[in-house]
Amino acid sequence: MATMAECRSALDRLSDNLAGADGDVRSAAALDRSLSCHIKDLDVTFTGRLAGGRIQVLDTVQGPPPEKAEIRLAMTGDDLVAMVDGELNFAKAWGSGRVRLEAGFRDLLKLRSLL
Asked: Which of 7, 13, 43, 108 is the most buried (most CB within 10 A)?
């Protein structure tokens, strides 16, 4: 099971990957939205923003997110680390229910290029 530090590191690496992307991925990452990532097996939520093509983690809280973010992710720590490491395909994990992504319809359309 991934630790909280490993999950935070994975989010930082994901942020770096988004910042260095180009084309459709860069366009999708250019949203300015509140973001939460609930790590189900650790019962911890990273909260922050997707802004300027980066994920900015602002806080870490126990349990589910205290407020409804505009973009909400939920998964296990191992799945987060595996996705960032390229070992787990996001679209397949989302389609099978291993990863939950919730957002407004327009945001989902923009985010589809990240899949």
From this structure: 7
C-alpha 45/C-alpha 37 separation (Å) is 5
59 to each of 47, 48, 56, how far by Cα in Å? 5, 7, 9
Question: What's the pLDDT band for 113 if we cut at 50, 70, 90?
Answer: low
Tens-digit pLDDT profile for residues 67-91? 999 999 999 999 999 999 999 998 8
Q: Which of 67, 84, 66 is nearest to 75 (CA)?
A: 84
pTM score > 0.85 for this model? yes
Q: How many CA atoms lie within 13 A of 53 on its CB side?
A: 12
Nearest CA to 34 out of 46, 48, 21, 24 is that of: 48
Assess contact for 61 and 33: CB atoms under 8 A.
no
Which of 82, 83, 86, 91 has the alpha carbon at shortest distance from 114? 91
- Minimal CA–CA distance to 55: which of 69, 43, 68, 44? 69
